[in-house]
Amino acid sequence: MKTLQDLARVDGMGDISFHEVTDFHAMGFRAKVHAIYNSHFDRLLFLDADNVPVRDPTFLFDLKEFKDTGAVFWPDFWHPLNSIFNIHSQSLIWELLDIPFANMFEQESGQLLVDRRKHAARLELVRHYAFQRLDILDRMKLVHGDKDLFRFAWLKQLSPFHMIRYPPAVAGKVINESFCGMTMAQHDTEGNVLFLHRNSNKLSGVARRADRDNMAEAVRRATAKLASKNPGGRKTPKFKEVQAELKAIEAVPGKTLEAPELDGFPDPVIWTHLVSFKRATRLAHYVIETYNADPEFSKEQNCYGQRELGKNPNFYVQKVADLSFSGLETELRRYAMEAANRRQEKLSSP
């Protein structure tokens, strides 16, 4: 927190204030609900930490759709005909919340535009859904975090909201003709990309390295040294011998999971192509696949979209290099590296 406060002072952003969260229940997705509910702003645009606008988004507050309803939401990849969260016409959630089935896209809450004055009652209900003591919604896997809680609260109270009518595009990378979508691209009311939600491959500012069991390797090395020095002697290494090996191992960074980028920034470049839904196509044909693109991508990497670009005629492909925000990822990766370096400096300082 002190690092953020220092940055705000250095950059001359004196109007930024920080408020401590004292509710120990406000963890995970509930932290978002808590922040919005307790915000000092009357009208707010909330963005997840891994979500960035490709241009100044303040024009959203002047939209007719926002002025008329006081709430603008964005769609998720999923809808009743294709959902990984089991939200469809037969889902128990509708009966449990006592609201009629809504045949619409699920909500993606990485960005939320809300007039808190106009929708205080809805926010009370969102807070109830998120913090209800029995945690039924989450335990029964009826919803995923806070994702759909906002639209459910608005639907429950029959309050209008504007859902962006353009389904999200997918930004990702192509390796050997294999595409892996790792970022959700959300649009404005005119269908232009406005937000890039990097929720499947987050920035860290440090190189990702393969997991390794340093302690087991330290014991193995220390044991091998004992056997080499005195074959008939002591078999089990002492604690200090293992610690010496462990220190030597940790001094050498492990193997990186991705090849280093030419610009030297640790995070990988993952925005090379943008896959978008054709506007003249029926929304029922909007189908996003989930898959693993091994060996081109790590087995642990979740991919979204279509592995074979051009396979689905309902989507079209653009190179990010040809788009107005082509240089954005480089800047973000640089910021992430600077943040990681600042954090390390703070940890290393006495």
Automatic annotation (TrEMBL):
GO cellular component, one term: Golgi membrane
Coiled coil stretches, renumbered: none
Gene Ontology molecular function, alphabetical: alpha-1,2-mannosyltransferase activity
Signal peptide coordinates: none
Keywords: Golgi apparatus, Membrane, Signal-anchor, Transferase, Transmembrane, Transmembrane helix
Compartments, record wording: Endomembrane system; Golgi apparatus membrane; Membrane
Pfam families (alphabetical): Mannosyl_trans3 (PF11051)
Gene Ontology biological process terms, A to Z: mannan biosynthetic process
Membrane topology label: Single-pass membrane protein; Single-pass type II membrane protein
Main localisation: membrane
Source superkingdom: Eukaryota
Family in the record: Belongs to the MNN1/MNT family.
Name assigned to this protein: Nucleotide-diphospho-sugar transferase domain-containing protein
Organism expressing this protein natively: Phytophthora fragariae
Organism phylogeny: Eukaryota, Sar, Stramenopiles, Oomycota, Peronosporomycetes
